[in-house]
Write a structure and sequence with these properties.
400 residues, alpha/beta, seven-stranded parallel sheet, four-stranded antiparallel sheet
Length: 400
């Protein structure tokens, strides 16, 4: 099977020849640039460059040699390896190693920290000693009216942007045999928190219903307009469309399930069902935390794939998830715990952990191996290699 065929089979709940593997096809299955540089050094890979494609999370885009080394089957539509080298500028990571940031997205140095600006306003910052950029500005924090919602500068795809996506999708579809994931987003809860601030938006859902429903309906309107152009441009060349909406905490959903069903789910359903009605794409949802109580609703809303499968969160035990939802949901993640196992255990312990996870999740398809969320800067390269080499060795069907 080709990588693309392998992924499609798994998503159709068939057993392919091998368990598909992902590293870095979206912004929660990747690796921080510091860990990436350490991994390359450990493997003796001296060429190439470390492109930081998610500046906020400081994530590196895996290079072809890494994709091949770890038998990866899927890449992002936003894969940058064909981009002009002159568009990238060196960036010194907190450990002193070097990465590159796209010139048009390069931060500004201000005193002892790096910042991103919108006009004169600092929108996110990386203080001295920090490994990430932290958002510090919420553009609709003080909004309170429908007029303010309409006047907000909502993002719409331009014809030029859609044309570039169409060309990239065609290039990847005909020029590679990878499965291709398109990042769309489509969040309601997370986007609202980003616009209003976390506490404001959570209070809005209970105390300011008329305003927040207008705000969420506007989000859906914008998403559906963007989906119309996006699906026309790339829908017959990519296989997976990635949505995201972090709904959980470590111990429970962020809100009572009834509140989710009343306020968020109907809007999720409009977005996901639009994809189903206008394409043959698989709908991928990234949602962290303990969301066991919401999974039936998410399936009903239209998702096919759940990520990151945070198995260390309450009620998210692998066996339970596979037994209850494995016939209706593909688990894209859960292959190795990134909270307690990947950073802290020995390579031998990690190998046993990965074997156990594959044995649970892989039967009957519906599983793509990757770690639970991004590989952090403190993870030793030996541990990364142990996880992925074990997956490569254990991926043949039938799994035992």
């Amino acid at each position: 099977m080709t990588p693309r065929e392998r992924v499609i089979a798994a998503l159709n709940h068939q057993e392919p020849d091998k368990v598909p593997i992902d590293l870095g096809a979206m912004g929660s299955t990747g690796i921080m640039a510091i860990a990436y540089n350490q991994l390359k050094k450990h493997l003796g890979m001296t060429g190439g460059s470390t492109r930081i494609v998610d500046v906020g999370q400081q994530l590196a885009e895996p290079e072809p040699a890494i994709l091949e080394r770890f038998q990866v089957d899927v890449i992002s539509l936003n894969h940058t390896r064909g981009a002009n080298r002159e568009q990238w500028k060196d960036w010194t990571l907190p450990d002193g190693s070097v990465g590159q940031i796209y010139r048009s997205a390069y931060p500004v140095r201000r005193g002892t920290e790096w910042v991103f600006m919108s006009g004169e306003t600092v929108t996110s910052r990386m203080p001295e000693g920090c490994l990430y950029f932290e958002p510090c500005y919420w553009s609709m924090e003080h909004a309170s009216t429908r007029d303010a919602i309409e006047k907000h500068p909502w993002f719409y795809f331009t014809d030029e942007h859609l044309k570039r996506l169409e060309q990239k999708a065609q290039q990847l579809f005909t020029g590679t045999d990878y499965a291709i994931m398109g990042a769309f987003g489509g969040s309601i809860l997370e986007a609202g928190q980003g616009l209003r601030g976390w506490s404001n938006f959570m209070m809005d859902l209970v105390l300011n219903r008329a305003f927040v429903e207008d705000l969420m309906d506007k989000m859906v309107e914008v998403y559906l307009k963007n989906l119309e152009g996006y699906l026309q441009a790339v829908g017959d060349r990519i296989q997976i469309i990635q949505m995201g909406d972090d709904l959980g905490t470590q111990n429970a959903p962020q809100m009572a399930p009834d509140l989710y069903r009343e306020m968020i789910k109907p809007r999720h359903k409009k977005i996901y069902r639009y994809v189903k009605q206008h394409s043959n794409l698989f709908v991928f949802l990234h949602s962290c935390g303990s969301i066991y109580e919401l999974i039936p609703d998410l399936i009903d809303a239209g998702i096919d794939i759940l990520n990151p499968v945070q198995t260390s969160a309450r009620n998210m035990e692998p066996g339970r998830l596979k037994a209850e939802f494995g016939d209706r949901l593909t688990f894209w993640g859960g292959g190795v715990d990134t909270q307690h196992v990947l950073p802290d255990c020995s390579p031998e312990e990690i190998a046993e952990h990965v074997k156990e996870r594959i044995n649970i999740f892989a039967p009957c398809g519906g599983f793509v191996f990757t770690q639970v969320h991004n590989i952090q800067a403190n993870v030793p390269p030996e541990n990364i290699i142990a996880a992925y080499d074990t997956a490569c060795l254990q991926r043949n069907y039938p799994v035992v």
